[in-house]
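Working notes for the structural subgroup meeting. M.R. asked for a predicted model of this chain before we commit to crystallization trials. I am recording the input and output together here so anyone reviewing the notebook later can reproduce the run.

Input as submitted:
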Amino acid sequence: MRALKYALAGTDTHFTREPGGTPVAERIREILLDPAAEMDAWTEAYLYAAARADHARTEILPRLERGQDVVCERYL
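Returned structure, recorded in token form:
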């Protein structure tokens, strides 16, 4: 990612990550990465989906609609 940021320096490119990238998604990320937060696979999957939905709706899609390039670490 660092090399890509360097290669695209000066371009209209937004770099982001998942899970995370928005205040809501960052809070979800904290839960997902907390070893004390025990959860089953379904709960974990829905949290990832919620983080992705918020990130896509509030960060990725608006930037793409404005013509900006978006590079997202770990986007599926």
